[in-house]
Amino acid sequence: MKALSTPVPDVLIIEPKVFGDSRGFFFESFNQKNFARATGLDVHFVQDNHSRSAHGVLRGLHYQIRQPQGKLVRVVRGAVFDVAVDIRKSSSTFGRWVGVELTEDNFRQLWVPPGFAHGFYVLSDSADFLYKTTDYYVPEFERSIRWNDRAISISWPIGADVPPIVSSKDANAGNLADAELFE
């Protein structure tokens, strides 16, 4: 596997080695030793999650203010535009975001470190999204930042004539300026 840098250095694109032929393909979606060697990170995952979303669904921007979760995310069916936003006030990249297209065909994964808000927009008819987390989900610690906050200015690949489908929680999320953030 290879780890590719992004404009926000703590966020990494992970490209596994895929072995394929006319019969199909095989790859290790995660191997602790190879991940540590490629990224220099010593992380321990405690939870795996799977979500399915329809075309046009936008989820995020989510994070946990306590028990923050690092996430290793990937798509096993369909395609999404995946986003990580640095919300660590002391960081030199505070408020900056990284967006990457993750698809069932490119096999890419995105490492979203603790201290980042995360979201994605579904580009395909539907998408199955898998992610490993470094800490457990705790509903009372979950926070959200508005997906279209102008202070962040994410360039979502959304058509002007079709608004994204968001949950009421995400539609009512506050802006970065009012959010509870990491030091």
Written account of the structure:
The chain has helices at 32-39, 168-171, and strands at residues 2-4, 12-15, 19-21, 24-26, 47-54, 58-64, 71-77, 79-86, 97-103, 109-112, 116-122, 126-133, 142-144. It has 183 residues and is mostly beta strands. It has one domain: Jelly Rolls (Sandwich). The chain is globular. The model has no long low-confidence stretch (mean pLDDT 97).
Concise account of the structure shown:
Helices cover 7% and strands 39% of the residues. By secondary structure, it is mainly β.
Shape: globular
Gap between N and C termini, in Å? 32 Å
Instruction: Specify the CATH homologous superfamily.
Output: Jelly Rolls
Instruction: Quickly give the CATH architecture.
Output: Sandwich
Q: What's the main sheet like?
A: 6 strands, antiparallel
What count of structural domains?
Answer: 1
The ordered H/E elements are EEEEHEEEEEEEEEH
**Class computed from helices, strands and strand pairing:** mainly beta
Q: How much of the residues is beta strand, in percent?
A: 35-45%
Estimate percent helicity.
under 10%
Layout of SSEs?
Elements (H helix, E strand, L loop, with lengths): L1 E3 L7 E4 L3 E3 L2 E3 L5 H8 L7 E8 L3 E7 L6 E7 L1 E8 L10 E7 L5 E4 L3 E7 L3 E8 L8 E3 L23 H4 L12
Antiparallel strand pairs: 1-2, 2-10, 3-4, 5-12, 6-11, 6-13, 7-10, 7-12, 8-9, 8-11
How would you describe this structure in keywords?
Jelly Rolls; 183 residues; 2 helices; 6-stranded antiparallel beta sheet
